[in-house]
Every structure is written in structure tokens, then in C-alpha cells.
Amino acid sequence: MTPLKERLADTLYALCVALCSACATAPKHIDVSVNVAPDTVRLLETADGVILRADAVVSNGESYPVYIVGCGPAAERQIGESWKEVFSPVCATSGNRLAEPKSAMTVSVMLYGFTKPGLAPRLDPLAQPGLYRFVFQVSQAGREDGPTEPQKSFRLVSRTFMVTR
Questions:
Q1: Radius of gyration of the chain (CA)
Q2: Lowest mean pLDDT among 2-6, 32-36, 75-79, 101-105
Q3: Model-level pTM?
Q4: C-alpha distances out from residue 65 to 41, 60, 72, 144, Å
Q5: Which runs of consecutive H residues, i.e. helices, occur in the chain?
């Protein structure tokens, strides 16, 4: 890759990170949470790359439904004092799911990182064993106790889990 293309790619990546960082986190008053089962997950190595696979249990304690937006969560790894996205969801169609009020649902998560040339998404070199969390995009579907406000999207972060080889 030429230096100009590398600089453009770095700029585009920085812009994407900045935009994602601007996403709101879950409001403190909302009763929606994510647990990962099991709490220790093995990275599965294949001939083409690595797979991170786990179940995420989304619990909606609210009196109104919420939407899990997109085809799945990203996976972030703790590096030092900060979190870095090392696996991104990829899908061909929207996979929005409805989490009904006062219920829990299991979302099977399978994220790929490819090392074989020509396949995407590429494996992030930082996708190593360590402390991880899933980050979902969630949208409130509206409250029962009044007029529906415009849907607000926010990041819903799971409890942490360990990833091993």
C-alpha cells in the first residue's frame, strides 16, 4: 500500500472510531443488561483465521421493548486502562431483534478475523487472549407511560469475560 493510501486508511479508521465514540452509552435509568456465557471463551483457530464464539443473554427489565440493532455486537479487548475493538460484526442483512419487556433472550455471537488473503474482516493483531466485552447497539422502542419519543440508540456493554487460546 502506498504511503498516501495508508494515510487515507488511517484517517478513515480514526474517523470511524471517533463517530462510534460519539454514540451514547446506555442511560443510567434503563434496566437492560448483557451477560456472556460461559465466562471464559476459547478463540477457535481455523485454516482461514480465528473465530470468537459465545452466547450473550440480553435481559430487558423495562416495561417496554428494546431493539438490538444490527447483526450483532462488536468485541472489545481491554488493553491497559482502555478498551479497543478487535472484532467487528459483519453481515449481509439487518439482523434487528426485539427484546420483549420483562424478559431475557439469548443472542448467539460468532465473530471472525481472517488471516487468509482476500477474506474480510482481517484479524486484528490485538485479538489475543485477555479480558473482553461485547458492545451492542440498542434502540428504545418507546415507553408505555407516555408518547413515544424519537428512538434513541445507545451502546449496551456486556459484563466482561475472559478469552483464552
A1: 17
A2: 2-6
A3: 0.77
A4: 29, 8, 18, 9
A5: 3-21
